[in-house]
Amino acid sequence: RYSFRAVDLLLQQFVPIFDKKRVFAVQGRLQAAATDDGAGQVVPFYFRPTLGGSTSHRGFNDFRFRDDSVVNVNVEYRWEAFSGLDMALFSDWGAVAPNIGKLKMSELQNAYGFGFRFNTYKTVLYRIDLGFGGEGVQAGVAADVGGVPEALGHAADGSRPGLLVPPGDPAALAAAAAFSSEETAAMTRAP
Questions:
Q1: Strand order from edge to edge, sheet including 69-82
Q2: Are strands 65-66 and 124-133 parallel, antiparallel or unpaired?
Q3: Which of 84, 92, 94, 83 is nearest to 25 (CA)?
Q4: Distance between terminal CA atoms of the chain?
Q5: What CA–CA distance (Å, rounded) separates 24 from 100?
Q6: In terms of pTM, does the model score above 0.70?
Q7: Which residue in 30, 37, 141, 153 is a FRET match for 127, CA 20 to 30 A apart?
Q8: What are the residue ranges in the chain where pLDDT is below 50?
């Protein structure tokens, strides 16, 4: 009943501009899950590719769209603002469909935004992206370090978009991740 094939094709290109502190990044991804026609097989809901969130389409919440085929493209310009902080401008496009043949460029959902990467020489410690798409401003989970709350601004109701977590508090991070997961699950349930 649950026999299916899955494909996940990821293409990335990073082009330094002038020096290693400025980068133009392009990423394209095609994900598909399929069964044999007429075999009575289905792809389980939780194995279907998704679109939305910090790793695919930053203009929508995590797992916002789900179907058997997903395509997304991310274009990003990154630069070092100063030591320990990189900034980025990005645009994301993506679509879902019941199969690869039904993916249409005319149905791509677009978003744009900016982000901050707090880093050391070897790794990114925190990443915050603010995406502006068809469903308003989307922000990811971030550490509540100086300046971040002010950068997030306020939603129409006066609350802060996203979830702020105190640094060095793994329990608070786990609670924020669980809340985000429950909120996403509630949005994807059928009415």
A1: 5-17, 19-34, 69-82, 85-97, 109-119, 124-133, 136-139
A2: unpaired
A3: 92
A4: 26
A5: 28
A6: no
A7: 30
A8: 142, 144, 147, 151, 184-191
